Amino acid sequence: MKHVAGMRPVLHAEWTKLRTSPGTFALLVAVVVGTLAVGASSAALSDPAPGADLPKLSLTGVLLGQAVVAIVAVLAIGDEYASGLVTVTFAAMPGRGRVLAAKATVVAAVLTVASALAVAGSVVAGWLLLPAGAVAARPAVGSLLYLVLVGLLSLGVATCIRGPAAGIGTVLVLLYALPIVNAAVADPTWQRRLERIEPASAGLAMQATVADPVIGPWKGLGVLALWSLGALLAGAVLLERRDA
Amino acid sequence: MNAFADTLRSEWTKFRTVRGWVLGTLAVAVLIVAFGLMPGMRGTCGKTGPASECALPTGPGGEEVTDSYTFLHQALTGDGEITVRVAALTGRALGDPDEPGQAVEPWAKAGLIIRAGTGQGSSYAAVMLTGGHGVRMQYDYTHDTAGRPAVVATGAPRWLRLARHGDTITATESADGGRWTTVGTARPRNLPTTAEVGLFATSPQHSEEMHSGLLSGAMGGPTEVTGTFDRLGMRGGWTGTAWHADVIGALVDGPAGGAPGPAGQSGPAGQSGAAGPPARASGFEQVGDTLRLTGSGDIAPAVAGAGGLGVSITQTLVGTFVGLVAAVVVGTGFVTAEYRRGLVRTTLAASPGRLRVLAAKAAVVFGAVFVAGLAATAAAVVLGRRVLTGNGVYVNAVPTATEVRVVVGTAALLAVAAVLALALGALLRRGAPAVTAAVLVIVLPYLLAMTVLPGDAARWLLRVSPAAAFALQQASTEYSQVANLYTPADGYFPLPPWAGLTVLAAWTALALTAAAVSQHRRDA
Questions:
Q1: Residue B475's closest CA among B366, B313, B357, B363?
Q2: pTM for the full model?
Q3: Domain range holding B245?
């Protein structure tokens, strides 16, 4: 009971910080607009062959949206380190793990709202611009969960690395550079192996509806969830061990 | 100028004394080399004894060539002239006997040729009828001259003539055997007095673009062409009837295309390059005066990609993307850290010219990343090629100039990207959004062009976005006379290399200008 009582003010504080920090709202708008814009223009530009993965095509914008999601999450902790606010935060709320949990909660909450809007918009755009069959439930729900999990992964990574620039850099390597490197691996066995364990390629298996993905959709999302959980746990451990 | 030198020195001192930036710059180098040496690609070249060595024949200019065709020839000395009428061309896809009535491959060729010898890669000049590109004169693999358009349907034959005068070969063609039009003249590089003269037929690998979901690729397979010739005649010093038919560069050493195929290592999904045509002793038959030559392969420069074999040296630079992120983090941090710590006020108090400070910062970041990047790309290409070759993967040979351009160009790409990041950092003043923006504008267009977007949209994006700079990494040359898919996904970019870098540099200049304007207007 004491624990629950202790969690509320922390959540409240984190919510106030996130809500009032400059740029949060603009970034959340950017998640929606960026995802929609890339998704809609990919749908409009493509002339999909019969049998193409239409739901996935309409959700291409997630490739951009994930980066903005990562910024929101990285800044949630990175800005505190950059400005030195973190020392005040921990003086007021010494339970560091609890602070991280509260941050994860509020970040996940706002990202859920923004991602839901972004995904819903992309689905509508796909339904308008693409031939029939572009709307499917699992890719849409999967993309929403994917974006939220990417946010949590970014929060965990940024907690470990602390500097916002280096933190976002690490996240961008995970999300963008590794898939490109992976595509260049010509040995098919290794390629499949790597695609199964990389956060982006495994998580995006949720979007696939026709091609045989290297990993089952929910299993892939589970891999991403493990990455997020692992990053957050590592962040929590480092928070306890290190000086702020 | 002196003031600039002072500013430059103070910025350099800042850069080299902050551990994070030095480590970040080193990370650029280490990541590129590490990913370049990453094992994981395996081939069979040279792995199963000396006979399995992979090497493409090289042409007179030193370039790698594909040289396989069916050849009806005899040795002829001195000057002379040979004429033939092409009555028909018919095509067939190999490896799929259930698919009859296949159209002739656009770059299937049948016609007359004069060659230094029957060895692969020897100097030649030829006049030919193609499946879809009319009459052409080609010589020494890389040279191609278009003649008049022509489609050989039965009933509309085409006359071809090849004349030798000293070292000069003249190709002419005619629709009726009466009025002749010159297609072109050529001086092949090494044509001996006694050369092999005769008829040839060959047809390249068929490939077409394929899109399925997020994966683009190529599919296709070997094809063959049958040229039906008649009215073969010689004049002006050449006589003789002792014709030999040979299938040059076929089967013995590899799949269609005549080039040795590093099996177990193939390009994009669905490529069926390994299925060779069924063995055939001779692609020649004669019925009365009618000669039929059936051939498969090509006489052309070898290309990488869907229609080609092996990998290019660009494969060793895959770490560029990871290195790029590190370079961008360094570039952004070099300016945003000053805002974060308030150091920028000291900097500007000491050196009030804000543009000068921005320029000095840009110069320092450019220099540091360029030097680290150059060392890394040179090491990655040189060592990475050894790793690939050691793993039995065939790496396409490239001219030294191309290799230097790829190495230096990649370093320049990283350095310019770091400056772009610096400009965005000065503009946004916050590290995370600046890093993300810089990485996204460079990497996202590349990613979209390589995966989701269809060819045209992909090419457009790689012409106008900062990702155009990746054209610097293109190692293979695009030949319009060689059937291949020249898509970005296969490593062919729409812009010439340095034009691509110019696009990135232009975006960077734009961002720097915006940063300078905002620096000028805003308080630090």
A1: B313
A2: 0.79
A3: 56-301
